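In the previous chapter we treated chains in isolation. Here, by contrast, the input contains two separate entities that must be folded as one system, with a combined length of 225 residues.
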Amino acid sequence: NAGVTQTPKFRILKIGQSMTLQCAQDMNHNYMYWYRQDPGMGLKLIYYSVGAGITDKGEVPNGYNVSRSTTEDFPLRLELAAPSQTSVYFCASRQGLAENEQFFGPGTRLTVL
Amino acid sequence: DAKTTQPNSMESNEEEPVHLPCNHSTISGTDYIHWYRQLPSQGPEYVIHGLTSNVNNRMASLAIAEDRKSSTLILHRATLRDAAVYYCILSPTTGGNTPLVFGKGTRLSVIA
């Protein structure tokens, strides 16, 4: 099992550029999540999905879009990058019961200049 | 949403036990108590979880107060590798799948 994988590991964007952060899991989990973590802060939820074709907004969704066409993949799209989106982005997955553990990817460190 | 309160930071000597407290006074009867930790430059990782009874696993022990309004994560012998941010999180069973909400956690420093 590879678990949760994320690509790229690092990226530098110019203001206004777009990019897609990739996330995949091979554990057949139905729930997937995107969080961002600013320096010295906790994780904030951007978007989440409870299954293929179903997505919902988290605490900080503005400036981002997601799609979930398969169980395995949950890409995060930044359309017009802004310096405020400089952060570390973590993808996570979980089988959908409250007692189940959540698995995290290694993160993507994004800098917008 | 039920919230948790943790100290911002704690310090421990290597090979000593560490008790990390968490208050969750508004916990509901069906909320699970989860603990995660985040090592430097890594994503969070699961440590342990419980509902009512104390729990042990290879990483740690979880002691849950009888009224469930607080819990304590116990690392039996802290090592330098245990230096991390520890998050105490409630996972509700009602209202559909509520995503885990991460606060700022407790930053544990381990002194050699």
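The two ends of chain A are 36 Å apart (CA to CA). The interface with chain B takes residues 31, 33, 35, 41-45, 48, 50, 58, 90, 92, 96-99, 101-107 of chain A (CB under 8 Å). Compare these points with the single-chain example from earlier in the chapter.
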